């Protein structure tokens, strides 16, 4: 176990650099903070590069065969992304899923995220897609970084093993069309209610930006547009709630 107390330490500099998206992708690593998150990383076999502890923190975890670094309280606070940190995080190696990894026989329930920006929403959607039994999440360019610490934390471990593809919308569309998936987009500009339409066995749900909805590209290339009825005065649903409602209908249809 190495103890680090200098901000000039090269290992500390590398850890701190992972707070920036550009550096994360250069190093192919990201930070995952919190005791439960670390427990899930261990449980689900995430590729852990190192464990980082705050000075004075003790945990009943099996960390054998893992590199463990202890940071002084001041240094740990500089890399922590939470207000009330528990004093533990891990550096995890990214899973590189490319378009060549798409399996049309296995990836039949797909979620497509179009320019979603809120880390909490995206993390919650990843977790919900996992719970709903979806096979793949496609994140089009323009979305918040899936390895943003807040996304990782909100996903509650699901991001360690869920298949997540990061690509342009053009590449994602080509993959979905090539697999013969029905493309269903959430939009207010339709008369089709989500609970009154038929979903195909192979279905890709598209969810749009929190403020502006899906863009014209997906509207023009969708097989079906659906909306969720609203009975109160609210202008719209939270996108994570919309995702849960839509996915539940797809799963219900398939379970029948």
UniProtKB/TrEMBL annotation:
GO biological process entries: methylation; RNA processing
Keyword Transferase: yes
Signal peptide feature range: none
Keyword vocabulary terms for this entry: Methyltransferase, Transferase
Residue ranges constituting the RNA 2-O ribose methyltransferase substrate binding domain according to the UniProt record: 31-98
UniProt GO molecular function: RNA binding; RNA methyltransferase activity
Domain of life of the organism encoding this protein: Bacteria
Xref: InterPro entries: Alpha/beta_knot_MTases (IPR029028), MRM3-like_sub_bind (IPR053888), Ribosomal_eL30-like_sf (IPR029064), rRNA_Methyltransferase (IPR051259), SpoU_MeTrfase (IPR001537), SpoU_subst-bd (IPR013123), tRNA_m1G_MTases_N (IPR029026)
Entry's Gene Ontology cellular component terms: cytoplasm
Family: Belongs to the class IV-like SAM-binding methyltransferase superfamily. RNA methyltransferase TrmH family.
Protein's UniProt name: RNA methyltransferase, TrmH family
């Amino acid at each position: 176990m190495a103890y680090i107390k200098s901000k000039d330490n090269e290992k500390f500099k590398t850890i701190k650099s992972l707070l920036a998206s550009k550096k994360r992708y250069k190093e192919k690593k990201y930070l995952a903070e919190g005791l439960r998150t670390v427990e899930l990383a261990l449980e689900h076999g995430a590729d852990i590069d190192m464990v980082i502890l705050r000075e004075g923190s003790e945990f009943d975890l099996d960390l054998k065969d893992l590199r463990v670094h202890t940071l002084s309280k001041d240094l740990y606070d500089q890399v922590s992304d939470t207000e009330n940190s528990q004093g533990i995080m891990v550096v995890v190696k990214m899973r590189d899923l490319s378009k060549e990894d798409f399996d049309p026989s296995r990836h039949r329930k797909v979620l497509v995220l179009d320019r979603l920006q809120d880390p909490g929403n995206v993390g919650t959607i990843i977790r919900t897609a996992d719970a709903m039994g979806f096979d793949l999440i496609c994140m089009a360019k323009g979305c918040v970084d899936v390895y943003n610490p807040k996304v990782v934390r909100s996903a509650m471990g699901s991001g360690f093993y869920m298949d997540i593809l990061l690509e342009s919308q053009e590449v994602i569309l080509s993959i979905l069309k090539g697999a013969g998936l029905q493309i269903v987009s959430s939009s207010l500009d339709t008369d089709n209610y989500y609970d009154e339409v038929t979903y195909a066995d192979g279905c890709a749900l598209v969810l749009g930006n929190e403020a502006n909805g899906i863009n014209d590209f997906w509207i023009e290339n969708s097989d079906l547009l659906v909306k969720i009825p609203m009975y109160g005065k609210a202008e719209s649903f939270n996108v994570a709630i919309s995702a849960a409602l839509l996915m539940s209908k797809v799963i219900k249809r398939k379970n029948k």
